[in-house]
């Protein structure tokens, strides 16, 4: 059983970690009698990297540090995430999802936590839809149309997503739609890792407030960020993942996790319509999990 820290000590430790984060320090190590998360495979893959660090450039050392952190971190469950214990979110204890989401949005504010606020962003795109939805779609980032209107998936890709939702026998108003990051990257470029890491904690809080039964990750960026793994779409698709939003807890003790499936981003399907049939298979998985009627007709 994990040790329970005194609340005052938790707060002090959380403040100290935030201080180090602001200095750019994100990697922490602790001594334990038993380090169960480190398997023999992890140890043998880490040690050679450390021994050769003196001959590598700072950028190469940083890449290896990221790889080592990923190798160990993926094995950890959200219950082992110290930030889940340390963080006290203002919406915790609020049973109404609509009110909880409002608190999260207010906490986000006119966000300046990453560089995107200085790179032409018009507004923050928080999320939209049924705040008690059983089904949640999570994309990558807002585009130009979304940045203009303040709502996710309203451009051509959004129209295709609407058609996909309709093919499932649902309406856009029945689901909740959000993105990994809430500001448009300049030129619609792929979000940087630091941007995803900065913004995704707010998404985790949204998920915990909504408590969906099923999450569909749209595209590689969404899937890799949510699952914290680096794999191809071919490897990610076609299976279920038990997903727990890291760093937060739901107010509902009966909700501990959602089923997560991965499919192609609608923007990709516009570029390669041949993959719509494969995307439809992914949506049928979600429909079966939600006990929706599954037809053989595709999504558009």
Describe this structure in words.
With 300 residues, this protein is of the alpha/beta class. The chain folds into 2 domains: 7-75, no CATH class; 91-289, 3-Layer(aba) Sandwich (Uracil-DNA Glycosylase, subunit E). It has helices at 7-22, 40-51, 58-73, 82-86, 97-108, 144-149, 156-167, 193-210, 220-227, 233-236, 266-271, 276-289; strands spanning 128-129, 135-139, 176-179, 214-218, 241-243, 258-263. It has a 6-stranded mixed sheet, with helices on both faces. Helix 2 (40-51) packs antiparallel against helix 3 and helix 5 (97-108) packs antiparallel against helix 8. The chain is globular.
Q: Any chance you could write out the topology, listing elements then pairs?
A:
Elements: H1 7-22, H2 40-51, H3 58-73, H4 82-86, H5 97-108, E1 128-129, E2 135-139, H6 144-149, H7 156-167, E3 176-179, H8 193-210, E4 214-218, H9 220-227, H10 233-236, E5 241-243, E6 258-263, H11 266-271, H12 276-289
Parallel strand pairs: 2-3, 2-4, 4-6
Antiparallel strand pairs: 1-3, 5-6
């Amino acid at each position: 059983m994990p040790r329970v820290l005194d609340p005052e000590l938790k707060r002090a430790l959380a403040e100290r970690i935030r201080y180090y984060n602001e200095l750019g320090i994100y990697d922490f190590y602790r001594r334990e009698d038993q380090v169960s998360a480190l398997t023999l495979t992890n140890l043998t893959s880490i040690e050679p990297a450390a021994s050769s660090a003196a001959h590598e450039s700072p950028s190469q050392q940083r890449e290896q540090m990221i790889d080592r952190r990923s190798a160990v971190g993926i094995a950890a469950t959200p219950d082992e995430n110290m930030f889940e214990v340390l963080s006290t979110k203002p919406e915790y204890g609020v049973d109404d999802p609509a009110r909880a989401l409002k608190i999260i949005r207010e906490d986000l504010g006119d966000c300046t936590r990453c560089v995107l606020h200085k790179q032409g962003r018009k507004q923050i795109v928080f999320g939209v839809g049924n705040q008690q939805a059983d089904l949640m779609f999570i994309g990558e980032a807002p585009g130009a149309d979304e940045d203009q209107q303040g709502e996710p998936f309203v451009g051509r890709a959004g129209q295709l997503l609407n058609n996909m939702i309709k093919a499932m026998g649902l309406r856009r108003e029945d689901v909740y739609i959000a993105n990994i990051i809430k500001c448009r990257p300049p030129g619609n470029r792929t979000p940087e890792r630091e941007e995803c890491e900065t913004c995704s904690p707010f998404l985790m809080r949204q998920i915990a407030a909504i408590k969906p039964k099923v999450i569909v990750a749209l595209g590689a960026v969404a899937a890799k960020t949510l699952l914290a793994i680096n794999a191809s779409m071919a490897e990610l698709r076609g299976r279920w993942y038990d997903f727990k939003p890291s760093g937060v807890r739901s107010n509902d003790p009966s909700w501990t996790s959602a089923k997560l499936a991965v499919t192609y981003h609608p923007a990709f399907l516009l570029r390669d319509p041949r993959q719509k049939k494969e995307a439809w298979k992914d949506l049928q998985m979600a429909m079966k999990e939600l006990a929706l009627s599954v037809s053989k007709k595709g999504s558009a």
